[in-house]
Design a protein that fits this description.
about 230 residues; alpha/beta; 11 helices
């Protein structure tokens, strides 16, 4: 019997240990790498080409959109499964699901996790959210849109570029301003939106691509085409 090769990546060592224990108890899974940061995760996926990569929704050192852009650009055979803990992370994955990504909640029972991963390995895509949770996300989207109203045009512009996976240096070059100025803007954005990291900021921008003008029209059209 061919074993399912897996790369697991999470910023919390206890989560990695839990995944190792659960999957290690089943002979059809083979964990080939265990990573706590984004760079190590990407390197393992590139070098080992596992069947499945189980990814934390907020990996340090790499944002969700950056992981998605790598997948889209390099088209590895690895099936990506986001292991998510929050509604914002789940919303981000839901928006990526049209490209074939899957998501599993961190509060799922071990036996369901194992069964779900076997389905992913067999070619099935796990849909991000059941109907009831989608309603919650739509309500959250309205709240997010209202929150974005406090941002300046420049802050909204930086937010959009963050959602494209650009670094501070790349954003600075794009807007012809210094890295320090970008950091100041991001600090103000985080304070206004009451968030703490770029991954959440990117997810908020992506969730508003059709409603709050964060993503330019040509990019919104591309996203809508990919979802159909």
């Amino acid at each position: 019997m061919r074993r399912i090769t897996v790369v697991i990546a999470d910023r919390h060592p206890v989560v990695l240990q839990g995944l190792s224990n659960v999957l290690g108890a089943h002979s059809d899974f083979n964990i080939v790498a265990s990573c706590t940061d984004g760079a190590g995760c990407i390197e393992a996926i590139r070098n080992l080409a596992p069947d499945i990569a189980i990814l934390d929704g907020s990996m340090p050192g790499v944002t969700g959109p950056e992981i998605l852009s790598i997948k889209n650009a390099e088209n590895p055979s690895t099936r990506f499964v986001f292991f998510t803990a929050s509604e914002v992370e789940r919303e981000m994955v839901m928006l990526a699901a049209a490209d074939g990504y899957s998501y599993i909640s961190k509060d799922v029972a071990p036996e369901i996790l194992v069964r779900s991963l076997r389905q992913v390995a067999g070619g099935r895509r796990l849909l991000p959210l059941p109907t009831a949770d989608q309603a919650v996300c739509r309500e959250q989207s309205v709240i997010t849109e209202n929150a974005l109203a406090v941002l300046t045009d420049r802050e909204r512009q930086i937010m959009r570029l963050v959602s494209e996976g650009l670094s501070n240096k790349e954003i600075g070059r794009r807007l012809n301003i210094t890295d320090g100025t970008i950091k100041v803007h991001l600090h103000h954005i985080f304070q206004k939106l009451e968030i703490s990291n770029r991954t959440v900021l990117a997810a908020m921008a992506i969730s508003q691509d059709d409603g709050a003008g964060i993503v330019p029209e040509h990019e919104s059209s591309r996203i809508r085409r990919e979802r159909t």
